[in-house]
Write a structure and sequence with these properties.
This protein is an alpha/beta fold. Helix content is 33%, strand content 24%. It has 17 helices and 27 strands.
């Protein structure tokens, strides 16, 4: 249709229909002004107070020169300031660039340069790293915000973020933010290459919030712990921002410390918790688990990696009143793609569930043609959740959206009734002796051995097998298992080409702050096994 109205009328209609992430907090504050919104340490904000803090911070950012479309980098552990900045930037139309606080100065400098960030907010303990990164990236001037989590005073050239929200204009910024304007620039973990900048809009995120609410059983009466890093899309946008959308209460912890999570559940009468499987395992193994009052907990969510079936069974036995959901997706999907619901957990154990409310999911071959049910192919999605693309990367964006579907890079199998099983990441598929081996299948088999707390399976280069299946196993405390036990267990359950050629016992597995096991690091550490031909190692 041709334009129906004058530009002035079109602008008025657009203003009346505005529906961005920044608008969500204002609407929730109008519904529940006196309800507890955010708890972090000694700070407790009602929704009216949280809205006022976000508005004041937005005006402070604008006063310092940030405008719609500019990028603001954020380097910090979880904090209430992190939460305020997430919504202050959304209200201004400023693109938030959350940065992994484990990165070094050169890695951060790449993100600053690539994103074109004109400002940065850093936690005080990370300020030295931030300053080195800013110097390397040659970022001149711009906003410099300081989050004093350790109580240290702001360094030279930095402003205390707390001063931004304590005074100033409490009204909402007068900025027209469209639902397809870029809102977040999330940098994915790099593998062989530099990380990619995933551009997310309000439309992507809010459609994903709706899927989370409907399929994930979320509600305004939830009280949730947020312990995983908020620089990850899962904690920030599957859970925290959805809680704000609904008017639920968020308890923010700086890190996923098991003792702190357990104590917080008991103290704050928490009803809802999201953890990757590794953190759920840490909770189950913690000596305070059985002694802690967890009776308030009603909803549990897992994702980021597959939940071992044996651990899932143990969770259901020890937390029988907790309904469990499996969320599967990736940053490019905002991040939710599929959900396995509570009544399907044991019946479909190991499955990633079915496509979420606003998602279509297929499994395709290398030409993009759907494969028959039960056959392995690449998992692809079509959904308003999907990213606007990779920032400043036409080639990778075109490849990711080939054929009009988003290509996840994951391999999976779809049943005739639409249930998805994730076989492996394409890059984690082990090619050994001419056969493809899914590391997850081997991990599931080893988890069935009594005494195994955690396991990671991966391939290392081998002169004969091309890649050799390798397992690093962490025993449960006090468990008397050996590498020989693991090897014998695998022989009894797996085809010969799937059995680990190398088994190593370890005290712990390397993980990132979100609890994902760092297989790349394990490959590097154990790359020499094939040269020494040391097949089985204890310790």
């Amino acid at each position: 249709m041709d334009a129906m109205f004058s530009p002035q009328t079109d602008a008025a209609i657009a203003s009346a229909r505005q529906h961005s992430v920044g608008d969500l907090l204002r609407r929730t504050a109008a519904r529940y002004p006196d309800k507890l919104a955010v708890v972090a340490g000694d700070h407790r904000f009602t929704y009216a107070e949280f809205e006022a803090a976000a508005n004041r911070t937005a005006h402070a950012l604008a006063d310092r020169g940030l405008a719609k479309g500019d990028r603001l980098a954020l380097l910090s552990h979880n904090s209430w300031q992190y939460a305020v900045l997430a919504f202050a930037t959304a209200k201004l139309g400023v693109v938030l660039v959350p940065i992994n606080f484990m990165l070094g100065p050169d890695e951060i400098a790449f993100i600053l340069r690539h994103s074109g960030a004109t400002g940065m907010v850093s936690e005080d303990a990370l300020a030295t790293t931030a300053e080195k990164a800013l110097a390397t990236a040659e970022v001149q001037g711009g906003v410099r915000g300081w989050i004093g989590l350790s109580g240290a005073a702001a360094g030279a050239g930095w402003e205390d973020v707390d001063a931004w929200w304590r005074a100033g204009d409490e009204s909402a910024p007068d900025v027209a933010v469209a639902d397809d304007d870029p809102l977040r620039l999330m940098y994915t973990s790099g593998t062989e290459s530099r990380p990619k900048g995933v551009v997310l809009s309000s439309r992507s995120l809010i459609s994903q919030y709706v899927s989370c609410v409907i399929d994930g059983g979320m509600s305004a009466d939830d009280v949730e712990v947020h312990a995983l890093p908020m620089y990850h899309c899962a904690q920030l946008d599957c859970f925290f921002s959805v809680d704000v959308y609904l008017g639920a209460t968020s308890i923010i912890l700086p890190s996923p410390d098991p003792a702190a999570i357990l104590a917080t559940i008991a103290r704050e009468q928490v009803t809802k918790l999201f953890c990757p499987p590794t953190v759920w395992i840490s909770l189950l193994r913690h000596p305070d688990f059985d002694a802690t009052d967890l009776s308030s907990l009603r909803k549990g969510y897992y994702g980021a990696s597959a939940m071992p079936v044996e651990v899932l069974r143990e969770l259901q036995q020890r937390l029988p009143d907790v309904a469990l959901w499996n969320f599967y997706g990736q940053t490019e999907m905002s991040p939710l793609a599929t959900i396995l619901r509570p009544d399907e957990q044991l019946e479909r154990a190991g499955s990633a569930g079915r496509a979420a409310l606003n998602v279509e999911t297929r499994v395709v071959d290398d030409e993009g043609t759907p494969v028959p049910p039960g056959e392995v192919g690449e998992i692809v999605h079509r959904s308003p959740h999907a990213t606007l693309g990779y920032y400043e990367d036409e080639e990778k964006t075109a490849a990711a959206f080939a054929g009009g579907w988003f290509h996840s890079g994951d391999l999976g199998v779809l049943t005739a009734d639409g249930y998805l099983s994730v076989v492996d990441r394409k890059k984690d598929m082990i090619k050994t002796g001419g056969e493809n081996v899914a590391s997850r299948e081997i991990e599931e088999a080893i988890y069935e051995l009594d005494g195994v707390a955690e396991v990671a399976v991966f391939g290392i280069s081998h002169p004969h097998w091309i890649e050799a299946v390798t397992a690093v196993v962490v025993p449960k405390p006090g468990a008397a298992i050996s590498a020989d036990d693991v090897s014998a267990h695998a022989r009894a359950r797996l085809a010969s080409y799937k059995r680990p050629k190398y088994v190593v016992l370890a005290d712990a597995l390397p993980k990132n702050p979100s609890g994902k096991i760092l297989k790349r690091e394990l490959r590097e550490v154990h790359a020499g096994l094939a040269q020494t031909d040391a097949g089985i190692q204890d310790g």
